Amino acid sequence: MKPVVGIVVSNKMQKSVVVAVDRLFHHKVYNRYVKRTSKFMAHDEADACNIGDRVRLDPSRPLSRHKHWVVAEILRRAKMYVPPSATASSENDTKAQQSGAATK
């Protein structure tokens, strides 16, 4: 088997991730290209993958009932939303209170 590239859709397990791999094939009857998605469970030894990461999987020996792949490398990290820190929001609240007191 050859390596595949996909997107991590779940990382809720310890040292395991679920990766969705898309493939295109030509449908002879409809004469269109059709997209199909396969989900593979893969071993992530370092627990480094997050949801949305683009990863390359290499085949391996069966590691469990469903795991036959290993995460070889993380090709692109997902852009994660980082909420503003608590100190920044508390500073904004005090500024708003001061400006509200100044207008009264």
Automatic annotation (TrEMBL):
Q: Which residues form a coiled coil?
A: none
Q: Which CDD domains match?
A: Ribosomal_uS17
- Record keyword rRNA-binding present: yes
Keywords, alphabetical? Ribonucleoprotein, Ribosomal protein, RNA-binding, rRNA-binding
Record's superkingdom?
A: Eukaryota
Q: Which stretches does the entry tag as region Disordered?
A: 83-104
Identify the InterPro entries for this entry.
Answer: NA-bd_OB-fold, Ribosomal_uS17, Ribosomal_uS17_bact/chlr
GO BP terms: namely:
translation
**Per its UniProt record, what HAMAP family does this chain match?**
Ribosomal_uS17_B (MF_01345_B)
Could you tell me what this protein is called?
Small ribosomal subunit protein uS17c
Natural source organism: Panicum hallii var. hallii
- Taxonomic path: Eukaryota, Viridiplantae, Streptophyta, Embryophyta, Tracheophyta
